[in-house]
């Protein structure tokens, strides 16, 4: 597709009142290569969302935000609050990757993979199945709601609410075991808090995807507001070729007039591009913040072009400066996004490989630093807390080393239940030499050993001070 220069494409300013005038958008469904691509992306994501919550490995979910145990389970890896830098790195990597992709292909995330878009299309298809095509729904909008039309409307909202409830249950299953959740709901044993949460999530999904829809993209999502910062004149965006399409003609004009050079453009002013747009914009008005680059207008326009024996591509993904296309991947800002993405990905991968499976805290008992006994021994008192973030690490054995004759008094086996409680220990030594003596606490399971350095304070040390 040859796109006219950006100076010939009218730019439409953002109108904050757009979409708030109460006009309901009846989206007309269409088919085409971009809609097939969108389904190829969205359906696996839906299957992953609804299916992943049920997958377990050795009784542990693959993905769950386990707040009571203060951990996040991610594909067999346990993350703790001590791993917040890794989680932050993942989010930075995802954000920089989004910026990188957006600078090349525009808002493809919004059009093909955003949850708001995916659920909106599901609800639109339910609406099409229950109440008919968009033109029929638009004609019947102001008609009395009774009889068969009332029954279809009830069925539509019932299906919407069912999908919303399943979504809420699945989403909640990522914060508590899904099997326990379903069992509580089936046995009417769910707590009031849980029921309230499910009701809120169900209503939120129902309102967002069924009633509000495009207003989320227009007024709630910040992405449309700062997308211009991430793009330039060589970014691919859904664009209307005004040079080829203007002035607009009519599909009813005779072929002789249509073929008259310069008399009329290829656009037949059928408005199908507007009818299929999920945000209700007219792409022919120029680049707009409300456009989510879903490609529905491209598929619809191509079908009209084929029927009227015109070349396709009147609307398509194009850059404002097509003549600079060979240099598209060699732009400083794009290379900067790529560098940030690569650095964030590498740093996160390194931190992930070297993450801690065991976190141990050793705190000296400040109320009684040491105590001497009649048999000549001297003891120091400690508080130890340990948390495990590996599925197989459930208990460990505690020992102490560093000085000859050290004796550890306390539980030999430490259970890693991540309760956050401190366990009391004391380390004793017969006839210490004096001073501050280095010692090491050793924590081991059947295969690995972790060591933490500490010290043994003796009476002699304090007498010399």
Q: Indicate the structural class.
A: alpha+beta
Mean pLDDT: 84
- Compute the number of helices: 16
Query: What's the alpha carbon Rg, rounded to whole Å?
Result: 32 Å
Q: What low-confidence regions span 5 or more consecutive residues with pLDDT below 50?
A: 1-14, 16-21, 323-327, 461-465
Helix content: 40-55%
Strand-residue proportion: 15-25%
Count the E strands.
Answer: 16
Shape label: elongated
Main sheet makeup: 5 strands, antiparallel
- The span between the termini is 85 Å
Q: Can you describe this structure in just a few lines?
A:
By secondary structure, the chain is α+β, with helices and mostly antiparallel strands. It is built from 16 helices and 16 strands.
Describe what this molecule looks like in 3D.
- β15 and β16 form a beta hairpin.
- Among the domains are: 9-82 and 105-226, no CATH class; 358-464, Immunoglobulins (Immunoglobulin-like).
- The chain has helices at 33-52, 84-105, 108-112, 115-131, 134-139, 148-172, 178-186, 192-212, 214-220, 223-230, 242-245, 255-259, 272-275, 296-307, 332-353, 459-464, and strands at 56-57, 60-61, 63-66, 71-74, 77-80, 237-240, 315-318, 358-364, 370-372, 377-388, 395-401, 407-409, 413-415, 423-430, 436-444, 449-457.
- It has 465 residues and is an alpha+beta fold.
- It comes from Nitrincola iocasae.
- This is Cytochrome c oxidase accessory protein CcoG.
Question: Keywords for this structure?
Answer:
465 residues, alpha+beta, Immunoglobulin-like, five-stranded antiparallel beta sheet, four-stranded antiparallel beta sheet, 16 helices, 42% helix, 18% strand, elongated, disordered C terminus, transmembrane helix, iron, metal ion binding, Cyt_c_oxidase_cbb3_FixG
């Amino acid at each position: 597709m040859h796109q006219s220069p950006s100076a010939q494409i009218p730019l439409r300013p953002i109108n904050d009142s757009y979409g708030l005038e109460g006009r309901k958008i009846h989206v007309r469904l269409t088919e085409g290569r971009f809609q097939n691509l969108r389904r190829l992306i969205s359906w696996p994501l839906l299957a992953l969302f609804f299916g992943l919550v049920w997958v377990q490995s050795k009784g542990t979910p693959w993905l769950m935000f386990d707040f009571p145990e203060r951990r996040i389970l991610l594909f067999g890896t346990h993350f703790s609050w001590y791993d917040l830098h890794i989680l932050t790195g993942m989010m930075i990597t995802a954000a920089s990757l989004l910026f990188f992709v957006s600078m090349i292909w525009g808002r493809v995330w919004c059009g093909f993979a955003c949850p708001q878009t995916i659920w909106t299309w599901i609800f639109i298809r339910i609406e099409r199945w229950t109440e008919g095509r968009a033109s029929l729904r638009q004609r019947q909008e102001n008609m009395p709601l009774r009889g068969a039309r009332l029954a279809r409307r009830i069925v539509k909202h019932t299906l919407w609410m069912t999908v919303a409830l399943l979504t809420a249950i699945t989403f909640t299953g990522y914060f508590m075991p899904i099997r326990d959740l379903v069992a509580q709901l089936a046995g009417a044993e769910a707590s009031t808090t849980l029921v309230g949460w499910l009701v809120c999530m169900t209503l939120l999904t129902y309102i967002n995807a069924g009633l509000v829809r495009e207003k989320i993209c227009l007024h709630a999502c910040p992405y449309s507001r700062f997308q211009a910062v991430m793009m330039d004149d060589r970014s691919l965006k859904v664009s209307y070729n005004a040079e080829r399409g203007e002035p607009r003609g009519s599909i009813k004009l005779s072929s002789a007039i249509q073929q008259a050079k310069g008399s009329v453009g290829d656009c037949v002013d059928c408005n199908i591009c507007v009818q299929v747009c999920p945000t209700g914009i007219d792409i022919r008005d120029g680049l707009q913040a409300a456009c989510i680059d879903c490609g529905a207008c491209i598929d619809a326009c191509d079908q009209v072009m084929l029927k009227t024996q015109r070349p396709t591509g009147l609307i398509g993904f194009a850059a404002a400066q097509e003549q600079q296309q060979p240099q598209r991947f060699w732009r400083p800002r794009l290379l900067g996004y790529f560098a940030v993405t690569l650095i964030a990905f590498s740093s996160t991968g390194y931190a992930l490989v070297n993450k801690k499976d065991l976190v141990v805290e050793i705190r000296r008992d400040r109320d009684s630093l040491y105590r001497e006994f009649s048999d000549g021994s001297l003891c120091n008192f400690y508080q130890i807390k340990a948390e495990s973030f590996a599925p197989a690490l459930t208990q460990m054995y505690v020992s102490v080393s560093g000085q000859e004759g050290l004796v550890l008094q306390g539980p030999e086996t430490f259970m890693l239940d991540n309760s956050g409680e401190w366990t009391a220990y004391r380390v004793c030594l017969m006839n210490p030499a004096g001073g501050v003596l280095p010692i090491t606490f050793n924590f081991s399971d059947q295969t690995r050993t972790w060591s933490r350095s500490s010290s043994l304070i003796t009476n002699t040390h304090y007498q010399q001070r």
